Amino acid sequence: MTLTVERILIATLVVTVAACGRTAAAQTTPPTDQVRSTVEPTTIATPNNAPRNILEPSFPTDATESALPLQPLFDFKESDIKFKLPNLMSTLRDSKHESWVLAPYPDPKTSLPLIGAGFSLDVEAREHPQLDPLNPNTFLEPSSAQLWQAAGLDSARLQIILDRFDANLKAWKKKGYRKKMKKHQLPAEITHEQATALLRISAIQATHNARAYCREFDQLTASQQMGLTQLVYQMGVNLEEFTQFLGVLNDLSYRDSTQSSSSVEAEAAHWKTVQTMLIQSDWARRYSTRAITVIAMFDPDYIENPKEAEREVQATLHPHRHKKSHKKSVSAGSKTNRPDRTSG
To answer: What is the pTM of this model?
Structure first.
């Protein structure tokens, strides 16, 4: 073999080895663009760009460690209750109840920030022991941050909203803040879909706790379940102070009657007493418009005539106002040749 041939063979061998090395490297090292995409994603799944069906009717299936205590809320099924959850949510959004504001605003009593349908933005998780030995259901009192995350919203966004609220409250004071709210001068901080997700998870929590307040929640009528859930939604742990109301609510001695006629009368008297306990509370006097609606729902015959049930509660809560209203209706009836039902 000549020197020239040897050199050609050596050069060919070097080129072949180098080519194999490049092929192996290409199989073990991702391209530059692929490395960047795994470290710096161009799109992050935030509540603003997440699909609507994730934000509104469902919950994340991969709950984080902080959301694990909320598993009972994820397990909720519509069949667990007799009333329609969307009906409760619609009622809570009404201006006669919680209203619907897509910006944080101060609670009229505590000045703590609320948003949506009265969702509390700055509440810590707390213990709420079950004091009724005859009720096996437990209470669930997570923090605002936990519920916010369970609703599928970004935790960092919550802190930004809270910081901005604190700065605005300091500048405007509570009176100025609420004036801007009533004039609709507060820019939205969350979307309608995000506020709906917060309302839904909060309503489910209230339903869960309503069962812990009432031994036989499952035996209540649909309207009674909804009325109790509304109370829990508005008052939270403060409902624990309604000892007389809760005592009567859980007193099932009226069922001991053996005669059917006496049983019906005893049940009617029982629910009248339940309503009376609420009518006599400071809550009913302070929030009378809302209270009339809620208290009326405890009437076992509410579904047959809701308006009549509300009128009966109003007549007890505001007897003088009811008499004036009655006089006006009689006067209007006489002007249109309607019979005077007050005579005879």
So the answer is: 0.74
